[in-house]
Amino acid sequence: MSTEKNFEVNNGHNENDYDASQIQILEGLEAVRKRPGMYIGSTSLTGLHHMVYEIVDNGVDEALAGFCHNITVYINEDNSITVEDDGRGIPVDIQKKAGKPAVEVVFTILHAGGKFGNGGYKVSGGLHGVGASVVNALSEWLEVEVYKNGNIYKQRYERGNVMYPLRIEGSCPSEKHGTRISFKPDAQIFEETVFDYRVIKTRLRETAFLTKGLKIHLIDNREEKHDRVFHYEGGIKEFVTYLNRAASPLYPNVIYCEGTKQDIFVEVAMQHTDAYTENIYTFVNNINTPEGGTHLTGFKNALTKTFNDYARSNKLLKDNESNLSGEDIREGLTAIISVKISDPQFEGQTKMKLGTSEANIAVNQVVSEQLTYFLEQNPQVAKIMCEKSILAQRARAAARKARDLTRRKSVLEGAGLPGKLADCSEKDPTKCEIFIVEGDSALGPAKNCRDSRFQAVLPLRGKVLNVEKARLDKIYANKEIQGMITAFGTGIHEDFDISKLRYNKIIIMTDADVDGAHISTLMLTFLYRFMPELIKQGHVYLAQPPLYYIRKNKKLYYAYNDAERDNLLLKVGKDADVQRFKGLGEMEDQELSETTMDPETRTLLRVNMNDDALSELDLTFTTLMGDQVEPRREFIEENAKYVQNLDI
Hints:
By secondary structure, the protein is α+β, with helices and mostly antiparallel strands.
């Protein structure tokens, strides 16, 4: 028995139709403008700044190849960007396959560049040949000038379209060479088109550290003029010194290892401080790899084995003592691991984690050989490192006991949630949020005006422990931190499991004053150091309570800072009644609800982490929460102008 199936063609195209007419073919750079997030990550400020990095990185690739010594980046008055380098200059002769000048090919065709072999670049950060063409596609306009052969070659594009053929605009000294690219991001694509000087400065400083000898000049020609030069002959050794400037190094000189193994060039710089956290940053061809990979594995294995072997052979560890763990040895360590690979393999699409197996062997061999030599030549430094590691080992054992005690008190084992937690009734974590408030005075109003179906409140007594100055055993023993760990449900450190998170939003709600800001910073330090994934995945928020209320003719207005207060007084009249809130505990329930807690009317600030600036983020926490006063004073003076919500 056979069954026939009759297929009818419906040219009416109802909503259930899916046929060949619905398959689009995007030509040239149309795909980039249609789906910009696929190429630069997002159309937010992160994607906007990524445009600058793409162009700068082309000059850096020239520097890695030995042809570029200077890069200048201008932020122009109209928020366009100009990047000039003294490299070889993009080729201007005809690319035979495309039948166009090579410079036009680079800016108008995806996956076209000198980084796919053929001897253009031995190592390169740009692997897919999309950087220049993507920037062109997402710009309102882009102009490129190439200085080559005594001529100035120029071409202009608008939204990726060629405005005129490549032409000679004039002559230049025969010895002048390089490329000058100017572009203005397209407001039709980006949510925001105003560049942040601080973000660009951070990235360019890091790039200069990673490219020994390269001079990068950043000039901001907008209203607030800035002019900075980044130039580090010491390369990553100076990078470590910079990162440790807010801490206290245990020995004066940065340990430096370099060498080539498996055709991979390896550079490692490291130094211990009196801190308790490790800060290790890894790079492949100057690309930050925040998830590490094989180069990080090679470093950790080499460090642990080499140091234990030395400690055993020199009786710094007794026969009856167990080996030091990698975590013990890395406590307080700041390290930069930079490898240059001709054809790196990454895990996934985002270049977050290196997968090249040869990098493990290369880093391991270089660090093992040169660290062994260093320890033998510097016995006093070796002794200092060993003594710190042994103290860390003892503290870790104490922390393990405290952690086990915390586990026994966990929800799963029946001891319940923290006593002062006012929990919510909703069982679906994705619908729940928890407010962390300072003290019992804030707990009362917060409990009264919350929606108990999905809003929980946890009060903290006093100021949270500064984890930047505390070892793991003290952190686990702290009652306030224990309460948060238990309430959140995820565990911390190596026990962290985000799938057990009990609340989708963790909201830090403190007074709108300096003390409140300090408590918020202490809380963020704890979350960043021991639960960073909560921040990365967007679960951490800052509540925004008002600082003033203004009453005029029975109408009530709220101001969140001095500027808002002054603007409101101009509108409603200087004779209005102005009162400053003394704190959350002084607010009426209705006031706290409508200004700070009600999802319909409140404002929350989500705390974000930028993977492009992790080293600067670590340094910020060390500066603000560490022992060194002078770096903290400098930081506050430099950034005070950005403070808006505090009545200082």
